[in-house]
Amino acid sequence: MFYFLKAPPKPVPKTIENQRVYDETTVDPNDEEVALDEATDEFAPYFNRQTVPKILITTSDRPRGRTVRFCEQLSQCIPNSHVYYRRGLALKRIIPQCMSRDFTDLIVINEDRKIPNGLVLSHLPDGPTAHFKMSSVRLRKEIKRKGKSPTEHQPEVILNNFTTRLGHSIGRMFASLFPHDPQFVGRQVATFHNQRDYIFFRFHRYIFKNEKKVAIQELGPRFTLKLRSLQKGTFDSKFGEYEWIHKRREMDTSRRKFHL
């Protein structure tokens, strides 16, 4: 007589993600303290539908062609955004002008050797201001099998894997760039996916092939962000108070330690 024993279940493979070092600031969705803080923070007027996002996108002084094209394509992804070029103006002078014209956020694209390599996002009028390193920029024409250009419909927004208090703040900054009510008829979606503290941005259109099958087309542009600092208030490089600064030697002691 033969007895057939069931094979033991396969062990879950170990990855950097599921071996992540526990962060004390990881947010519990039912945490009343977090809910109270977010109800009164700088983004509360947006989430309470008291403000409508209006975004100014600008660059470092004298931007090159690739940076200019990137700003134009980014503006097509973010409704009610406007591209203006600095023409030598300091950011401290631009911010009051933005406030007087009811802009809610300022995005600055920096470049090095003709390549976009940094992004500053400042929420107006009271901050905060986040500084990111930017890499892996791909313009629309450089993406294979891309779809047609984005339409003017308001996209859906997906924020994935922002789990700590710092991550929640960054996620709320990104969310406040987009209008509340997506226009589903446009079938467009903007995704900010955090993986190992790298934030991947993608802009897609989904297509219904039939009742069960759905395909997606990437529209572009695409880029990757890495948070360098989060500053209270609007941009101030000399006297600004920082909530968080990335210090590589002190913070990157373990490959399994993440901050967002």
In brief, what are we looking at here?
This protein is of the alpha+beta class.
Describe the structure.
There is one protein chain. With 260 residues, this protein is of the alpha+beta class. 19% of the residues lie in helices and 30% in strands. It has helices spanning 32-39, 44-47, 65-77, 91-100, 165-175, 248-251, and strands at 55-59, 81-83, 105-112, 115-123, 129-138, 156-160, 188-195, 198-208, 214-218, 222-231, 242-245. Strands 1, 2, 3, 4, 5, 6, 7, 8, 9, 10 and 11 form an 11-stranded mixed β-sheet that branches. The chain is globular. The mean pLDDT is 86.
Major sheet: size, sense and barrel closure? 11 strands, mixed
Number of helices: 6
Helix/strand/pairing category:
alpha+beta
Radius of gyration: 21 Å
Q: Overall pLDDT, averaged? A: 86
**N-to-C series of helices and strands:** HHEHEHEEEEHEEEEEH
Distance between the termini: 57 Å
Helix content: 10-25%
Shape: globular
The low-confidence parts are: none
Question: What percentage of the residues does DSSP assign to strands (E)?
Answer: 25-35%
> Total number of β-strand segments?
11
The quaternary structure here is single chain
